[in-house]
Design goal:
Blueprint (H helix, E strand, L loop, with lengths): L1 E3 L11 E5 L3 H12 L3 E5 L5 H7 L2 E3 L2 H5 L5 E4 L6 H6 L11 E4 L5 H10 L5 E7 L14 E8 L3 H12 L4 E4 L2 H24 L10 H13 L4 H9 L4 H25 L1
Parallel strand pairs: 2-3, 2-5, 3-4, 5-6, 6-7, 8-9
Antiparallel strand pairs: 1-9, 7-8
């Protein structure tokens, strides 16, 4: 694992980046890429023709035409649950040359294994996870963590230029194997989501006598449940470490409950 403030390349090139899936996260990334001068084109299940027209982005309704548009990078911004269906339906024969495929999913082994299984052998593969989103990154990306794994890279210039998009914005660039990412994310991201979802099921809300710590819990619930249930379930289904973290949480709650009962019986 290594950390740097930018990519290792001192020079970068203007990229033609094709984004698959133009929901809120794809739009969020595209705005910074456009600001840096990269050419963006996109395709998505929903029709974003009007929005893309305002942003100066070419929108493709047809996947064949999208793949034929000679992208340097194809950036997968689909949901975790739909990635398999999306990439298995891609007509790769439409690609004009070897292309770098990168993803931004919150689970990395699942994405890596699918891409290596389905993509043409000549395609490069870069697995990434920006540890921020439209809310946490709305005021800039400086000091926010960007995790990546150079799974299969032969075109160093394209890969370095893509990584520099994030490094030049001040991201903390963290190179990490996909398995290590998933192990850590199960303890941090998934655990955060499951606690927030539990608080939501309990319908906790602000009261007139909130402590600062309780206000923090309410904010955690409110910010986390804005994310889709598809994301939450994807974190559980496709991260092999998540089930163990759920079991650990259940065991910990049982231990705390037992300690309280023991103390009550002592009094």
């Amino acid at each position: 694992m290594s950390v740097s403030s930018s990519s290792s390349s001192s020079t970068s090139i203007t990229l033609k980046i094709g984004i698959v899936g133009f929901g809120p996260f794809g739009q969020f990334l595209a705005k910074t890429m456009i600001k840096q001068g990269h050419a963006i084109r996109t395709t998505s299940r929903s029709d974003y023709t009007q929005l893309c027209g305002h942003l100066g982005i070419t929108f493709f309704r047809n996947m064949d035409a999208f793949l034929e548009s000679d992208n340097d990078v194809i950036l997968l911004c689909t949901s975790i649950l739909s990635l398999s269906e999306v990439i298995k339906a891609m007509p790769f024969h439409c690609l004009k040359r070897p292309t770098l495929f990168a993803d931004v999913l919150s689970v990395k082994e699942h994405a890596r294994d699918l891409l290596l299984q389905v993509l043409p052998e000549e395609a490069d593969v870069l697995c990434t996870h920006p540890m921020f989103g439209p809310e946490s990154g709305k005021d800039g990306w400086k000091d926010l963590t960007f995790v990546y794994d150079r799974v299969r890279i032969r075109d160093e210039a394209i890969c370095s230029s893509f990584l520099k998009i994030f490094g030049s914005e001040g991201c903390k660039m963290l190179e990490m194997p996909c398995e290590e990412h998933d192990r850590l994310a199960a303890r941090s991201q998934f655990l955060t989501h499951i606690i927030a979802r539990t608080l939501s099921e309990m319908e906790i809300n602000s009261t007139s006598i909130d402590t600062k710590n309780f206000q923090t819990l309410v904010k955690l619930k409110e910010s986390t449940v804005r994310d889709s249930f598809d994301l939450f379930s994807g974190l559980f289904i496709h991260n092999k470490f998540a089930k163990q973290e759920l079991e650990n949480l259940e065991l910990a709650l049982d231990k705390v409950k037992q300690k309280l009962l023991d103390r009550m019986n002592e009094s």
